[in-house]
Amino acid sequence: MPRRVVITGVGVISPVGSDKNTFWANLTGGKSGIGPITTFDTEGYSSKIAGEVPDFDAKTYLDPVEARRMNRFQHFAVGASALALQDSGFEITDSNAESVGVIIGSGIGGIGSMEEAHKALLRGGPRKVGPFIIPMMITDLAAGHVSLTFGAKGPNYCTTSACASGSHAIGEGFETIKRGIADTMLVGGAEASITPLGVASFCGARALSTHNDEPQRASRPFDIARDGFVMGEGSGIVVLEELSAALNRGARIYAEVVGYGATADAYHVTQPDPSGRGAMKAMQTALEEAGLDTTAIDYINAHGTSTEVGDIAETKAIKNLFGDYAYSLLVSSTKSMTGHLLGAAGAVELIACALAIDTGIVPPTINLDNPDPECDLNYVPHTAVKKDVTTALSNSFGFGGHNASLVITKYEG
Fold it and tell me: How far, in Å, CA of 126 to CA of 410, rounded?
């Protein structure tokens, strides 16, 4: 029989909280983490708002010298991993290190470090480019630094699939344990691309909201007035364990991971297939692996980016797969509060699903004042709902047509 995989720890660093309890209180309280960008001058930018992580100090988790040799997205990954390990009570030791792996996704990696290095190159030539720039830039070094920091010696790599990166990392970690390659996996995503070039690039693509005068109302998934997504940053990491090992050490279990689906749209470099076919197939594949019927799902944490084409395509995908039952589902987009954490989004949102199962509360979609007529499901507008969530599904869809869906259930013993 396939080995069973459970979530025993969660760590989150986000615009609405850098610990599990604050994050969940703000999500369920409908509090937005979006505000004016503070890290650089946004003069000339069409979008001047983002979901920045407030008051984050990398030295809480890292030696100051090591922290200076790392990019912010790597700081976030190490910090969220420390929180997840602490939450799980799992200790990596010499005796288990080779059975503990790390997979952490990032869509963009250390873009801020690349920008600074390029400035140094132009100012002073190649000798002004430091030796740590490549390790600060490349996406795999979030996983690499987590492995180095905590001593995990099992499978270690990065998934880079744009906004599906974090979900793919969790899905691949789930499959790694199922296949017996590792017993425990630290998995998730990390991103820190609220930088001059990062924001300018998405502005150039006309992908970002320009509701600069009302930042907390700018991310409006499924609302007729939505005009683009809002960038966010942070990290979400979960501890996955093989079930019997978790039970043997008396671990707290948030939920069991039971299904993972990954597909491609093969349609357009940035836009989703408007039919939602690829997204539907990812959800269907995850449900099939879980051995569940569509009516088993209670809650969907939608990709829900607040873009016109994306929200409609996802709604179509849900309706095409779930049929009439789609109207009985609770569907919400926590990006309405966190913004879009790109490669970290799927991991942070799976944590929201796990906490919904654990607490019996479904977080809302805020700013949903006037739903788009083509988005006609129950998106839990404005206010959280108390609901005994047995099974939840999390969707992530990225530039390039990458789709990932994860299904988790309440562990019933």
Answer: 55
Residue 25 pLDDT greater than 80, yes or no: yes
Verify whether residue 211 is a known catalytic residue. no
For residue range 127-175, list pLDDT tens digits in order.
999 999 999 999 999 999 999 999 999 999 999 999 999 999 999 999 9
Residue 353 bears catalytic tag: no
Q: Which of 163, 203, 353, 375 is catalytic?
A: 163
32 to 132, 218, 219, 220, 404: CA distances (angstroms): 35, 10, 9, 11, 26
Tokens representing residue 48 in the block = 């001047």
Cα 239 to Cα 401: distance, rounded to the nearest angstrom: 28
Query: Which value, in Å, is the radius of gyration of the alpha carbons in the chain?
Result: 20
Tell me the pTM. Answer: 0.97
Mean pLDDT, residues 347-357 taken together:
98
Of these residues, 145, 168, 303, 402, which one is catalytic? 303
At residue 305, the pLDDT reads 97
Q: What is the pLDDT of residues 82-107, one digit of tens each?
A: 999 999 999 999 999 999 999 999 99
For 60, other C-beta atoms within 10 Å of its C-beta total 12
Query: Does the annotation mark 340 as catalytic?
Result: yes
322: enclosing H helix or E strand = helix 308-322
Residue 274's φ and ψ, nearest 5 degrees, are: -60, -20
Select which of 75, 168, 340, 402 is catalytic: 340
